[in-house]
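User: Fold this; tokens only.

Assistant: Input:
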Amino acid sequence: MGLLDGKKALIFGVANDHSIAWGIAKALHDEGATLGFSSVESLLERRVRPLAESIGATFVEACDVASDEQLRAVMGKWKAANGEIDILVHAVAYAPREDLEGSFTETTRAGFAVAMDVSAYSLVAMCREANAAGLLHAGTSVLTLSYYGAEKVVANYNVMGVAKAALEACVRYLAADLGPSGVRVNAISAGPVRTLSASGVRDFRKLYGTFASIAPLRTNITIEDVGKTALWLASDLSSAVTGEVVYVDGGFSVMGVPLLEG
């Protein structure tokens, strides 16, 4: 018996087998969940569908999360194929590369709007469309992914840090709105992981390289680490947890001024 036997999970945002979303998918699958995937059309056939097929998942749909119509269509297809959603995973973020470099003051209006829409508002839209379709129910767990740059300034994270701060606020407001219906909404704030999206952050390798020397557990974070916490948040083991940002960062976020060794 797995923790998630009989549960159905819809995961947005898998890009490849290094994605945090894929680490979450594997953890949920290993505990018995039936999975479905949605991602941008350009990645669907080449990367997402083969991963889905490797674990026996048959629901794979393209979606631009900046489109209410496309979100609505995916939710409608899911309802027809699977009924309700027990676990909804939002692992989507984007900002133009030029707005992740240089001075934050130089963030463009268009870049700010795109980052906020795709990285933060899409969670609200996703929950709204799922709820309108009757997919959310008492016991549904909604998960999203944040990062420490939402709380403190991280070099070259710029507008994405602001978008992640908005995302964490959305988590709290959604938790308050959906909580009376028994729906939980939480975020995982992971330490730096080598993913496709992380490659868009300038000097990410330097950030990643020094992380393990500062984090109390002295280790880097893996997609499997994040998957384990997602499993807890997706299961009934966290039945009274909502509106929270759970750090999976080896303790990095508790440090003030670290004393580097050597």
